[in-house]
Each structure stands twice: as structure tokens, then as C-alpha cells.
Write the C-alpha cells for this entry.
Amino acid sequence: MAETGKRQDPFPAFRYEVRIDAIPVGGFSECTGLQLDFEIHDYVEGGVNTHTHKFPTRNKQTNLVLKRGIIDRRLWDWYWAMTRGRVRQRNVTIVLYDHDGVTPVAEWEFERGIPARWIGPQLNATQNSVATETLEIAHHGLRRVR
């Protein structure tokens, strides 16, 4: 008798946690920048007209972008310290959870992150949207832990 396969649904993208130096820093409405790219060098070989050779040169990562409603000053204070010459590198971890919201299924670590950009809320008295802040974090590498 044939065995029934176990259904494997994709994980929801809204069950995640952001930790800075292993400490949860609140809920974020958006987290982008989980991206790595290789720069590719095209080499044209004389006499070969059918293709160009492609060689990977270096790996580069995009900045991590975090958006959330303004709830406290911790992210602002970290950025403001940078403007005063006090550079504090921090490790950032993104944990994605299963459907139950408890079991971690994927985890990414950003090493030696520093705040690169802070964007404050767009205030508009004619709307009833939440005041959000955006923090962009440059880092020295991304690795998947889980």
C-alpha cells in the first residue's frame, strides 16, 4: 500500500523576531535585506565568439532594513551615538518561526552591524497611520545558522 506523503507548507513571513546582541528589541513590521550577491566579472577571450567567460569576484551583501512603529529610543540612540563618533558594532539575528509561532525554522546572523541610516516617521494630520521609523544596518556578513 502506498504511503501518504506529509504535506509541507511554506512558512509564513510574518512570524519573525529581531535580536540585537541576542536581546529581542521589539516587533518590526518589515524586515528586508536578507540578500547576498556575487559580483561577476565578464572575460572576453579572443577568438571565442560564442560566449564570454563569467568569473565570480567577491560576495557583497545589502544593508538590513528594519521598520517598526516608534515605541522607544534604543534604535535612535544607537544611530545618534554613531553621529557623535561612538561606533558600536552589534550582531543582529533574525529568527523565523513555524506556524505555531514558537518553533524556530530559520535563523540568519548579521555580523558587526552598524547603523547606516535612520528615517523618522512621515507625519500627516489627515491620515490615521502609525508613526514608523526605519533603521538601515550595514554589516560585515550574513550567514544562515538554522
About this structure: The radius of gyration is 21 Å. Residues 70 and 112 are 24 Å apart (CA to CA). The chain has one domain: 16-37+54-144.
